[in-house]
Known about the structure:
Layout: H1 3-14, E1 24-32, E2 37-41, H2 54-64, E3 70-79, H3 92-101, E4 108-114, E5 117-122, H4 123-126, H5 139-144
Parallel strand pairs: 3-4
Antiparallel strand pairs: 1-2, 1-3, 4-5
Amino acid sequence: MTDIDLVGEAIAAREGAYAPYSRFAVGAALLDSTGKVWHGCNIENAAYTPGNCAERTAFFKAVSEGVFSFEAIAVVGGPVGEPIGDWCAPCGVCRQVMREFCDPRRFRVVLANSPTVTRGFLLEDLLPMSFGPEDLSSPAQSAEAGA
Ligand code: THU
């Protein structure tokens, strides 16, 4: 799967966005280690804070079905009803959720400002000096948990 293919999946995922408040539609396509792509979109709420970003929707769909190994995510966004025309970088909360399930030295975040113009980043460059699961678990605890 090329970066442009994954961006195409994110553009398709964006069609599902529910963004009546911000009018900003975001799509994400999360590539797992088996080659399966998980779509996510932003889902807003009248109470505002319960809203979910596209990236986390994609991760939570995959993790809720037992998938824990990922290669890359493509993210695109822009005003509802318009084609993408600018970069849409993941928010800090979504970067931290990626950090929970991905090796920041390997996991790639692919952005696009058109269907064919992409930029790829390593998660460690978007979230330097990060805090992750291994910072909490002692070697003994990890062994017990089978990690
Ligand atoms: N949003 C995402 O879904 N992902 C991002 O990377 C940036 C922001 C959503 C949240 C909210 O529904 C809307 O875009 C405006 O912030």
